[in-house]
Amino acid sequence: VLVESLLVFIIVLSVHAVVWDRFSWCAVALAVQAFYVQFKWDRLLQLGGAVFQFRGAANSGLLPASMVMPLLGVVMKERCRAAGIVYFERFGIVVASTGMLLALFLSVLAVGITKPVPTNTCILTGIAGSIIIYTMKHSLTVSEVIEVLEVLLIFVYLSMILLYLLPRCFTPGEALLVLGGVSFILNQLIKRSLNVIEGRGDPIDFFLLVAVVGVVLLGLFFTVLFIFLDSGTWISSMFFHMMTAVLGLGVIMPWLYRLIQRNPLFWLLQFLFQTQTRLYLLVYWTFLAASACGVVFYQNTKRSSESKKHQASTITRKYFHFIVVATYVPGLIYDRQLLYVAAVLCLAVFIFLEYIRYFRIKPFGQTLRHLLSLFLDERDSGPLILTHIYLLLGMSLPVWLFPRSCAPKGTLPGAGALVPYSGVLAVGVGDTIASVFGSTMGEIKWPGTKKTFEGTMTAIFAQIIAVALILIFDSSVNLNSSYAWILASVSLVSLLEAYTTQIDNLLLPLYLQIMLMA
């Protein structure tokens, strides 16, 4: 935990040294108080004193999770200020302020339920909170303050509902990241739906907002419904499929139509088949998806022939990382907009299939349970299987969060040109190579972890080679001699992978994106 915290502090101070404004000072204050409060959360988890049941075999992860949204907002603000885009500069300030307020809320919650009351931590949290609120008071407009408070309110209610319904699925840090992100997206969707201006905004951004909110609301609806019904019967399954169609065609589609001012299905079909390159990419991705399904069926055949207790090895699970890299790299090079939309569709499909598996919806629910149980690891201790969704999110978030409006000619200068590749580098290359080489050839273990020195060093080397290949094949990338910063960023994130007990598929790409954008 101490080494993980040290690495996060180095990243925070690196961003602070580059940005050096009131918000970066607030980020430093937030990191100091989150470091102390993290130990209170860890103690609560060990003693079983936390309000909800969190994922075991991991620390609270409060510090690394608390810094993601504030740092993302700070670096986005700086990039958009340099490009002269005032609207997105203000948006970055709102993202940073929202992240700080959500992290402070979790800190106050931990301090409040810790007995006896930790006086020193209370004082530290109070000082950090005062600095952040004072800065927000002098930086945000009234409408922006209301927006931040709306996200906090949505986060509180969403956390109470989902953490109660889904025990042992998240650590406190993962809950902050996932539920904080969903709360922010929901608030953005409500805000944009109430202020629709024809021709304002990119349809693919609206598509992301509506898809994420739609599948979350769908899940909440069926979770409440199946408290009173047995979800495993044919009648319940028919009702599930019927209500999915009703909510999709009667709520989600009209909502998207209001935002993009055209028929969503026609727009999507026209978008997907607009050019010949897109057609080739779709055929190629279909082949890769079929290959991934083939790996699942083949591994399950081996299980049935060898042993009922047979579990997929680490190397077998990393097959999917290789397939995802092969999926994303051509999309990043040839058509990032298509990749953006395809990733949104894939996320919606993954979450919908998880609903079918979780609720045991006929005819595929029980089959999915059997097929996916082979690939479970210690992080899937709750009722949901989330690792494959986290993998997709880790690869997609750098594409979705890339500030296109603040990027002249579609790319950022210097190391920022690699921002969309953050997921490919951190998870697709770094994490995969570290796991494969560490588990097969690693002998020297990092102190206090199961990860090996050889795995980490190989991961850093592999990511440097990947950067060189990106330079060769993607003509839009021009690093402008930012090689030392890229090496430092890759090394810090690879060390963080060795020491964190959080979901690395989600955390590592975001930290690499922050460093590259800074």
TrEMBL record:
Q: Biological process (GO) annotations?
A: dolichyl monophosphate biosynthetic process
Q: Which domain of life is it from?
A: Eukaryota
A GO CC annotation recorded here is: endoplasmic reticulum membrane
Q: Name one GO molecular function term.
A: dolichol kinase activity
The protein's topology relative to the membrane is: Multi-pass membrane protein
Instruction: Tell where it localizes.
Output: Endoplasmic reticulum membrane
Transmembrane parts of this sequence: 7-36, 87-111, 117-136, 148-166, 206-229, 238-257, 277-298, 319-334, 340-360, 381-401, 421-441, 453-473, 485-512
What EC identifiers does the entry list?
2.7.1.108
Record keywords, A-Z? Endoplasmic reticulum, Kinase, Membrane, Transferase, Transmembrane, Transmembrane helix
Main localization category: endoplasmic reticulum
Q: Which InterPro entries match?
A: Polypren_kinase (IPR032974)
What does the similarity note say? Belongs to the polyprenol kinase family.
According to UniProt, the name of this protein is dolichol kinase
Organism for this UniProt entry: Platysteira castanea
